[in-house]
Amino acid sequence: MTTDEENRQRLTTQEKLEPESEAFKARLEELTRLRQEYEQYRLYPEMPDWEIMCFYPMNKRREASDNWYSLDFAARKKLMAGHARVGRKFSGRISQLITGSTGLDDWEWGVTLMAHQLDAVKEIVYVPAETATDVPDASAALMSRDIDAVLQIPGNLTASAFGSISEAARRSHIPVFAFQKSQAIGGAMVVVARDYRDSGRHAAHLAARIMRGENPAKIPLEDFGKTSLIVNLDAARALNISLPPALVRSAKDVIGATGGNR
């Protein structure tokens, strides 16, 4: 929860408002009102009579090399701010109640989501991102959950914003597995990538057959399935993960090898 001082700093540094201006005063009053409303709701929550309810327990990692509580307060606040920004996109569609989970095994708290439509619950749980600018906040929100790893499926949106995903995972000490060589260079620990050079050669070979007079209708469709294994030892070391030597030896490319990349 932001303080009045943090709101003042935000208005001057991010929104570039002069502290003595009327616009500054109006925005500060608005942010103060929103904070008070948030405090009121958290202290005295109202349970709406909505049709859909979803509950799940949560906790933060406490492992020796992967401990949420070992992060300084500023780092934790930055991660949770991204989580909150994602949640605010569902204002009016989702109502949330967070409770302490005393007695629920090792969980720290419980989260109850209420909605009119099931789709809204599915969307917020799956962490939506519609544009590249949504990816940093969505990534931070995803990493704040109790997940063991990220498996990044190729796509135009995630490929262009992979740096945000990789950085969020790095801060949370979560390994990333992917399917594009550029993502191994960008921080993914293990990548199984299609060899686009070989697939290009294969396509050129098929084109040459057609140019020599072969009937395209008689050439069967083929799925180019050749892949290459790439490992990033630098990423593994940062997470204190030891990759099996056999896996490293079988990789076509190794980033961060003792003798240099290969």
Q: How would you explain this protein's 3D organization?
A:
The chain has 262 residues and is an alpha/beta fold. The chain has a domain at 1-37. 43% of the residues lie in helices and 17% in strands. It contains eleven helices and ten strands. A five-stranded mixed beta sheet has the order 6-7-8-9-10. Strands 1-5-4 form a three-stranded antiparallel beta sheet, with helices on one face. Helix 1 (4-13) crosses helix 2, helix 3 packs across helix 5 (135-143) and helix 5 (135-143) runs parallel beside helix 7 (162-171). The longest helix has 22 residues, at 22-43. The radius of gyration is 24 Å and the shape is elongated.
Structural class: alpha/beta
Residue share in β-strands: 15-25%
> Nearest-angstrom radius of gyration?
24 Å
The shape, in one word, is elongated
Strand/helix succession: HHEEEHEEHHEHHEHEHEHHE
H/I helix tally: 11
Distance between the termini: 47 Å
Average pLDDT works out at 84
Biggest β-sheet description = 5 strands, mixed
Percent of residues in helices comes to 40-55%
